[in-house]
Amino acid sequence: MNTHETTGTARPEERGAAPAGAVAPARAAAELELRRDEFRLAVDLGLVRTVPGPAPGAPDAAPGDRAVRRRVPREEIERLRGAPDFPAGLRERVRAVGTKEGAELLSVTRDRFARLARTGHFSPVRFYINRYRAVVWLYPAAELTEFALNHPQLLAGRLPLDVRMQADADHLDWRPRNWRARRLGMLLRASDDPWVRAAAIASLLDPSHVAEVVDDPYERAQLERLRPAPPSWRPNTPTPREIADRLMLADDPDEILWHRMSLALALDEARAEREAPRPGAWPTLPAPPPGPATQPEPVPSPAVEAGPWPAAAPVPRARHVDRWPPRPAAVTRPPGRRVRRSLLDRLRRRKESASGPGV
Q: pTM of the predicted model, to two decimals?
């Protein structure tokens, strides 16, 4: 069974800047005749060595970069291209197979292959969520071939008793744990910075466990800033992404305890090198050396011309308003019904008198 890899030292080339001639991952994949996913898998498996690229803001950094992108040294590309089985051999070593292809590769049934995988005899390198929301694990074909050569007794006949007992246990499945151990080893090999390595271990723990181990909130903020990005192949849809996020966190009690102890040890190493940044903890600048005492020169005041000045015009006084503006005139209302009736009677009588008696 695979053990957790929590230690590792970066190669000497990785401690400094990227060597001259290092190329970007996209160009390296093209020169190695690999697809993008095959190249990422080769890096995860340790088949292609990478080094840190230029820091953000450097003259040779890509515009818009906010994180250090890794590059591939030119000599590493030449070494892989100089292999006698290139490129077919490199493609075969980065080939990942599922349960069906893996069982055919080992010449066993799918049930036997699943039992050996669940009991931790070989570790997956990647997984994906299918349309039925089931986890599909992928295994390196080269490691399965090596397992068949080293353990032929597990491929034929009856499985040993301990393997059968572990396989029959419903709650036992070493595949998520072994995948997390493989990913942690890859993250630890990628950097020799103690805070980055501590953040890689903390990324496998639930935030509640991290808070119990790390009491200082500024140290927790530092670990969160340096938290490694999730794999590029993580699902984007909500439900599969939620399933994938659960698989990225330790869930077994002894695994959680192991990572808590590893995180405490990694924090001791990080604190010994430098403290976590805190608000207002700016470096103090040295005071300038004392020079000869000098008095500030007086600033000359502007000269005022002498002479007769014209008398200032009197400023008119503002009119004092002792009361509010007058009310508007009363609005005349139209005559009432009685007034209109009397006017009509008067006009009728005047018309009759003017016309005279009828003939």
A: 0.68
